[in-house]
Amino acid sequence: MDIAQTSVIAVAVIVVAVAATIGLIAFGVYRARFAAAREDNYRQLAGRVADDLTGVRTELGEVRQRLAALEKLLTQIG
């Protein structure tokens, strides 16, 4: 092999290595952004669930009060 062939092979190897490095970095950035978006969605979902749970607790308290009032009325009737 002469020097020209060796340099062509070396340049090709360097180009492939640089392209692979850029590809891996781009893939890492994509995965990081995707993970951040998933975390934001998870936090929003957790917030909605917490709000729903608070609403259910409030409704349960109201149901207990109504049930106590109904029991009181039933004891007065019979």
Could you explain the architecture of this structure?
- It is built from 1 helix and no strands.
- With 78 residues, it is mainly α.
- The longest helix has 75 residues.
- Helices cover 96% and strands 0% of the residues.
- The mean pLDDT is 91.
- The N and C termini lie far apart (110 Å).
- Keywords: Membrane, Transmembrane, Transmembrane helix.
The secondary structure category is: mainly alpha
The separation of the N and C termini measures 110 Å
Mean pLDDT rating: 91
What amount of the residues lies in strands? Answer: under 5%
Low-confidence stretches: none
How many extended strands? 0
The best one-word shape is rod-shaped
Give, in order, the helices and strands. H
How many individual helices?
Answer: 1
Based on CA atoms alone, the radius of gyration comes out at: 33 Å
Oligomeric state: single chain
Q: State the share of residues found in helices, binned by percent.
A: over 70%
Largest sheet: none
From the structure above, extract its key features.
single chain; 78 residues; mainly alpha; rod-shaped; membrane; transmembrane helix
Question: What's a concise summary of this model?
Answer:
This protein has one helix at residues 3-77. By secondary structure, it is an all-alpha fold.
Give the helices and strands, then pairings.
Layout: H1 3-77
Transmembrane segments: 6-30
Keywords: Membrane, Transmembrane, Transmembrane helix
